[in-house]
Amino acid sequence: LDAAQTQRRRMLDAEAALVSGRASDAWQKISAIAEPAATDAAQRYLELRRHIAFAAARPLDAVRAAISAERFVTGEERTRLRRALLAELKGARERGVKLEPQATQDPTVRGWLELGAMAVSAPASSLTAGAEAAEWRARYPGHPATELLAQALQLQDRRGTPHVRGYQQDALFLSRPQPERELGCRRGLARTLQAG
Predict the structure, then answer these.
(1) Cβ 147 vs Cβ 82: under 8 Å
(2) Which DSSP letter does residue 171 get?
(3) For the segment 135-182, what is each residue's pLDDT rounded down to a tens digit?
(4) DSSP 8-state symbol, 176
(5) Angstrom distance (rounded) from CA 101 to CA 117
(6) pLDDT at residue 127, rounded to an integer
(7) Measured CA distances, 48 to 8, 14, 52, 112, 154 (Å)
(8) pLDDT given for residue 27 in this prediction
(9) For residues 109 and 180, which has the higher predicted lDDT (pLDDT)?
């Protein structure tokens, strides 16, 4: 076997361990394999590494693999990869895996981990979700997950379109001191926002 065939065989061995429910063994196997030089093999390796990392409760490593994989894709394929990462982060968190942003100094990785945790805890149509979105955007300006923020926090405008800015503005409006005569208007807006 040549080097590429040997590497492919080792990746298949790691995948077999994953499929057999031996996530820890699969992680050891995939960690012992260097990222392939060829583009197709590298993409397959990073995808497998991400899946194994999630199965082994290693979300930090899963996010790193997804970030590395982005260099091979563009446009809609990149968005699809980001959606898959967010869904896997949410799934991991729902299974009880801790998403610990403080475990890394890398702001891109931190942003993904924090958004994954927020996406699980954010109730739909919550007034606080808009404020949380604004805080996240301020902490992670230009983050690749910004395009998924509204979807992640289940924010929608009154037409049902994913929307962050409007809820952020509504939350700011509701938090500002208002004259007593506007109190009824604010309560009506709050009921409308809570109802979605």
Answers:
(1) yes
(2) H
(3) 999 999 999 999 998 888 775 444 444 444 433 333 333 333 334 333
(4) S
(5) 9
(6) 60
(7) 12, 9, 6, 19, 29
(8) 98
(9) 109
Q: Which amino acid is at 22?
A: R
What secondary structure letter does DSSP report for 1? -
Residue 133 DSSP SS3: helix
What are the structure tokens assigned to 69, written together? 């994989």
Contact 26, 55 (CB under 8 A): yes
- 145: burial class by Cβ within 10 Å (0-12, 13-18, 19+)? buried
DSSP letter for each residue of 31-95: HTSPPPSSHHHHHHHHHHHHHHHHHTT-HHHHHHHHHHHGGG--HHHHHHHHHHHHHHHHHHHHT
Distance CA(40)–CA(26), nearest Å, equals 21
Provide the b/e sequence for 154-168 (b: ≥16 CB within 10 Å): ebbeeeeeebbebbb
As a whole number of angstroms, the distance between CA 61 and CA 7 comes to: 20
The residues facing 156 across adjacent strands are 162
Tell me the two tokens of residue 36: 């392939």
pTM of the model as a whole: 0.75
Main-chain dihedrals φ then ψ at residue 156, nearest 5 degrees:
-140, 145
